[in-house]
Amino acid sequence: MNTDAKNIWQWGYLLNNSSEIFQLSGDVSNKIAAGEVVERPVNVVKELVENAVDASAEKITVEIAEGGLNLIKVMDDGKGIFPEDIEKTIDRFATSKIRDINDVYELSSFGFRGEALAAISSVCDFSLVSKRKGYDCLELKSSFGGQPVVKPAAGIEGTIVTVKNLFGNLPARRKFLKSSSAEQREIVKFIRHFMLTNYHLSLRLIVDEKEFFLFPKNESMLDRARKIFKEKKIVHLTNKYENLKIEAVISTPEVQKFRRDSIVLSVNGRVIKDNMLTQAVIQAYKRLIPEGKFPLAAIRLDISPSYMDVNVHPAKLFVKFLNSGEIFSFVYDSILEKLESLTPHSYD
C-alpha cells in the first residue's frame, strides 16, 4: 500500500470509528449487575426467599448443595405468577413492586428494582416453575442468560426457582468464593437471622439432601430466638413511640459474647447491617457487661417507609434513616428500660 492509499485508508477508518463509547449488550450488562446483586450464593438465597415472602408465601423450603454452588432451590406456597408475566420475570427492571420512583419511598415489599432474577439467571442454569390459582402452570428455563424457553408444567399453586451451576460461566468469579462449607455457613446464618425477625413464617432448610432445620409457622419471637440462639437467658420486649415500633429479644447481662455478630437487626422484616442500631444495643448494656463483651439481641424495628431509604445498596443490606438520632434514642431507651426492670427471676 503506497503512502497516499494508506493515508486515505486511515482517514476513512477514523471517519467510520469516531466513537469510543458503546452500548453494552444485555448479556454483558446483566453479568455486571450480577456482580453487584449476586456476589455469593447467600445473595441468591436472600433474593429468592424475599421474593417468596413478597408473593405472600407462608411456607418456604430452601434446598442447597455444595454450599449453593451446585444447587439452590427455593419453593414457596405464595400466590404464583400470571402466565403472561412469566417471561418478564428475568427481564431487567421488570417488577410488580413499584410503578414510579415515589413508590420506592413507600415500600411495603422487600424487592423493588427488578434486577435480581435477571442477574441470577445470567450466571446459572435457571428454572422457574409457577402456578397462579385458576391459571395454567408454566416453566421458564434459561441457561446463563440465554434465550428463555417457556413450556407447560405440572405444579401446585406457588413458585419453585432452581439455580444450578452458579457462576459456571464466570470462572474468575468462582475462584474468589470461599469453600463450599464456608458458603453454606453464610446461607445458614442469613436464614437464621431472617427467621428470627420473620417468626410468623415456616421455613425448611435441606442441605445436601438432608433436612438441616425446620422452623414451624407462627412461633413466638421468644421461642424462635431460644432455638436459634440456643440460650434460655433471654427476654422479650415491645415498645412504641409515634411512628416507631420495636419488638426484640435480648439477653440478660449474664450472657456475654466475644463478638458483636450475635446482634441481629431488621427493619420492617428486612435483615440489615447498621452501625448506629448496633451501637444503640451495645450502649444500653454499657454499665452491665464488661467492655469488649457483647449481648445477644434480635431487633425488629418497624417504621413508616417514608422515614427511610432502602435504595442505597445493590444488595439492600443498608438503609438510610431520616431521623437517625430519634431512632437511636428509641432503641437505646427501649432496651435499657427492659434491662433495668429485670430481676434474677425474670428469665427463669
TrEMBL record:
Q: What keywords tag this UniProt record?
A: DNA damage, DNA repair, Endonuclease, Hydrolase, Nuclease
Q: What biological-process terms (Gene Ontology) are attached?
A: mismatch repair
GO cellular component annotations, sorted alphabetically?
A: mismatch repair complex
Among the GO molecular function terms of this UniProt record, one is: ATP hydrolysis activity
What the entry lists under PROSITE patterns is as follows: DNA_MISMATCH_REPAIR_1
Superkingdom classification of source? Bacteria
**Domain DNA mismatch repair protein S5: residue ranges:** 225-340
The similarity comment for this entry is: Belongs to the DNA mismatch repair MutL/HexB family.
Q: This chain belongs to which protein, by name?
A: DNA mismatch repair protein MutL
Lineage here is: Bacteria, Pseudomonadati, Deferribacterota, Deferribacteres, Deferribacterales
